[in-house]
Amino acid sequence: MTGRELSQRIQRYMAELDGLGERKIIFNFDATFDKRNSKSASGLVVRGLMGAILASKIVLHNNVSSPFAAKAYAGLQAITLGISMGILSVAIMGDSRTVIKKCQTTKPDKSVIGAIIRDIQSKKSHFQEINFQFIHRSENVYAHKLAQEALEKGEDLHLMRVVSDHNRSAPEGRWLRNPD
C-alpha cells in the first residue's frame, strides 16, 4: 500500500467517524426493580445502523419508589449517555409503554415519575432529532439482562466497544469496572 492510499483510507475512516454523530443511533433501555431494598438497575444498549452494539452501560439507583420510577430512570440514563457520546440523532426504545408515552409528550407530567420525565424533557434539546419508541420486551432482552445481572451483583459497568453478533444474547466480555 502506498502512502497516498494509506492517507486516503485514513481520511475516509475519519470522515466516517465524523459522520457517526449525524446518523440515528438506537438506545435500548430497561430496568429491574428490587422492592424490598428500594433499588433498581438500568441496562442500556447502544446500537449502530447495522445493529452492532456500540456501547452498553449499567447504572444502579438507590431510593427508587416503584417499577415505573425504575423504568423512567433508565430512560433518563439513555438520554444522558446519548449526550455524553455526542450523538445528534437518536431513537430511544424501551418496553414501558407508560414511560415512552410520557417522554413523547410535551405536556407537564404530574404523576409520581413527573420529576424524572421533566429531566428527560429538559435534555431533549441536546439532540437534533430524538424519537421515543415502544418496543416489545422480546426486542429488549439484552438491556433487560444487563439490568438484571447488575442488580444481582450490585455493580455498575460501562462498555464502549463493538461486541460481535454472537455475544448479543449473553452479557459477557464486559469490563470489570468503570473506565477511568
From TrEMBL:
Keywords: Membrane, Transmembrane, Transmembrane helix
Record-level Gene Ontology MF annotations: nucleic acid binding; RNA-DNA hybrid ribonuclease activity
Regions that span the bilayer: 44-60, 72-92
Protein name as annotated: RNase H type-1 domain-containing protein
Residues annotated as domain RNase H type-1: 28-150
Keyword Transmembrane: yes
Pfam families referenced in this protein's UniProt entry, alphabetically: RVT_3
